[in-house]
Predict the 3D structure of the following.
Amino acid sequence: MSVDGMNYDNMFIRLLNRLGDAMILSLMFIIGSLPIITIGTSMTATYYAAMKGVQGDDGYVFKNYIKSYKENLKQSIVIWLIMAVVLFVFGVDLWFWLKQWQDARVSIAKPMIAVSVVLLAVAVFITMYVFPLQAKFDNKTSVQIRNAFLLSIKNFPTTLLLVVLTVVIVWCFYYQVAISVVAFGLFGFGFCAYIYAYFMLNCLKPYLEPVPEKAPDEWKVELEGEEDDEEETSEEDDKEESAEDQSQEIEEEEDSAEEETQDAEDENKESE
């Protein structure tokens, strides 16, 4: 479509639209996270809006964010509090054993450091996947956490890639706090949300319902049980028909036998 010679479908216009959506999404993410305990809810809503955008539902970032924020407020808070406590405990545990090794060279510290790293990594994996799952699926909190772990292991290369991206973001804030706050506050969080959403949709694609090819009133579902019932009904009908045929044949034979008997009696009377 073009107006006054300008093509609104070209890549440059789409890039500008995406950048505008990223700015809106970044601002919404920051505002929604201000109470701290709602960080998980804000992450869920951000993922929901970003995944909608990746799927082609552009121009409704604010609407999609608010919709998901309201629907997932309570459960996302619970999930966030659980994961925050787990991350804090494993992080402190790792710090403790690192200090033990650095200060006193405690022999048990090295294997405990390895265990702490694994546990912290698992907690990070779950945190990365659980909020996209919350944005797309309606399950119990325990189920969401379990599925997040399984999904992170199943898509391990994608998980590692997203971990690297997360480490880069953390490094940016550590190296240049002021510039990172401004950049991510303006559009960075939204831009990263679109990147995360793209990879998450690929991971969730096998579990999302396909778009129906027909209107709902045109759907026709044939169940195996119904087919079996139809076959059984047809077999019963055939049996009834054959039974009727057999009974009819028997009746005809009995009638012919009675007629023969009657003829024989008539002949005997005539001969007498």
The first helix runs from residue 11 to 33. The longest strand covers residues 2-3. The two ends are 113 Å apart (CA to CA). Residues 212-231 have pLDDT under 50 and may be disordered.
